[in-house]
UniProtKB/TrEMBL annotation:
This is Nitroreductase domain-containing protein. One of its GO terms (molecular function) is oxidoreductase activity. Residues 193-218 are annotated as: Disordered. InterPro entries: Nitroreductase-like, Nitroreductase/BluB.
Length: 328
């Protein structure tokens, strides 16, 4: 039986939940809420923040919640506590993603500490990268990190495969841009300059017009029909960086959560080495394109994320809701 003072327990849990706020989520929707009972944290999916057109199955919502779950685990380990996790513990409460209980004391190793230091520093990049290469040794390390969480990260190095992924992203972005209702759902999460909202993508967080990469991986059009967004240097093409696919062997809710945990683990590890990530989920939101990708490039595994990894010196703003807003 572990004896903890109330003050110690409160400090550890408070720190873990403060850290979880910084997990990545689609359009920075932050689709989660928390509840605390004694030494147990409940992580719940906030379905009111789900993208009802872009993510009707809730796949991206649960990937986002999986990223928050891994962040809680990492923060607890940094405090010397081993978390005891139950994923989807109650079939009668489908929004209950996981429970995390404070377990045995455990001294964090250097890798856990390094990831913990990146939780509030990590940023999603929404443009091209510099020409500085991502070390191959680091990419191999990211592959191992994803595997620990039950997912596969595959660097896409064949030029023809990179071109195919870019073309699928272009096709999906083109189709989605013609759907006015879906576009309105996306720009609902684009914050105007000076906005006091603490969710969504800040105007400074995406370029008004992104410099094209070669091949071009288009970004979401957060600046649709307005002049928001940051200025970008359009005089030259930006580097694609290293393209990678995150996949799982199945496509269940458990595996979506596992994909989210693997995603955050790789992002924090990459950030600790000065590498950022840009995400491209447009093709994964269209059934036929996702199936084509699964069969042609993913060896029949299910693609959960298309990303580009690279080095950038941009220091973009990010915003998060207060913990009080997330607690139930």
């Amino acid at each position: 039986m572990i004896t903890r003072t109330a003050e110690h327990r409160e400090r550890v849990i408070q720190g873990a939940l403060e850290a979880a706020r910084w997990a990545p989520s689609v359009h920075n929707t932050q689709p989660w809420s928390f509840a605390v009972s004694g030494e147990e944290i409940s992580l719940r999916a906030d379905v009111d923040r789900k993208l009802r057109l872009g993510d009707p199955s809730g796949r991206e919502l649960l990937i986002s919640c999986g990223a928050a779950l891994f962040t809680i685990r990492t923060a607890l380990r940094c405090e010397g506590v081993e978390p005891v996790v139950r994923v989807l513990p109650d079939p009668d409460r489908p929004s209950l993603v996981a429970t995390i209980t404070l377990g045995e004391p455990a001294e964090p190793d250097d890798r856990v500490r390094a990831m913990g230091r990146q939780i509030e520093r990590r940023r999603t990049h929404r443009a091209g990268f510099t020409d500085l290469p991502v070390p191959e040794r680091l990419m191999d390390g990211l592959v191992r990190e994803a595997r620990i969480e039950g997912a596969r990260l595959t660097p896409v190095r064949a030029p023809v495969a990179v071109t195919m992924l870019a073309a699928l992203t272009q096709a999906a972005q083109g189709a989605q841009s013609q759907d006015r209702v879906l576009t309105l759902e996306v720009i609902r999460w684009a914050r105007p300059p000076g906005s006091s909202r603490r969710d969504g993508v800040p105007a400074e967080g995406y370029p008004r017009t992104a410099p094209p990469t070669d091949p071009d991986f288009p970004q979401r059009d957060y600046a649709w029909r307005h002049e928001w967004g940051s200025e970008a240097d359009l005089s030259r093409s930006a580097s694609v960086g290293e393209v990678a696919l995150l996949t799982t062997t199945g496509d269940t809710r458990e595996q979506w959560i596992a994909a989210g945990q693997a995603l955050q683990r790789t992002l924090l590890h990459a950030c600790a080495h000065g590498v950022s990530a840009a995400f491209h989920t447009q093709a994964l939101e269209m059934y036929h394109l996702r199936e084509f990708l699964r069969h042609e490039l993913c060896s029949d595994e299910y693609p959960q994320m298309i990303m580009r990894l690279g080095i950038t010196f941009d220091d973009k703003e990010s915003v998060r809701r207060s913990l009080a807003e997330m607690l139930q």
